[in-house]
Write a structure and sequence with these properties.
With 79 residues, the protein is of the alpha+beta class. It is built from four helices and two strands, in the order H-E-H-E-H-H. It has one domain (22-78).
Length: 79
């Protein structure tokens, strides 16, 4: 895959850039692309101090499926 080196660099840079920042991880559990247990666990390992929120009824477009829950999570963390 030609994008692999770029994605690996991006992954490292994201972890380094956000390591000391507050992070909220929101996952739509009905998302077929990003809600597998292994992907979620990878994010949780990268950001062990992050606030983790599952949105059980949300799919890939969480902002459309769970806008109020997202607003609540942002306000709780940063408000």
């Amino acid at each position: 895959m030609r994008a692999h080196p770029w994605l690996a660099t991006l992954e490292t840079r994201v972890a380094q850039t956000l390591a000391d920042k507050p992070v909220v991880l929101l996952f739509g559990r009905k998302d077929p692309a990003l809600a597998s247990d292994s992907i979620i666990e990878t994010w949780r390992r990268q950001f062990p101090d992050a606030t983790y929120i599952e949105l059980p009824e949300a799919g890939h477009y969480i902002q459309e499926d769970a806008p109020e829950e997202i607003i609540e999570a942002i306000r709780a963390e940063f408000g």
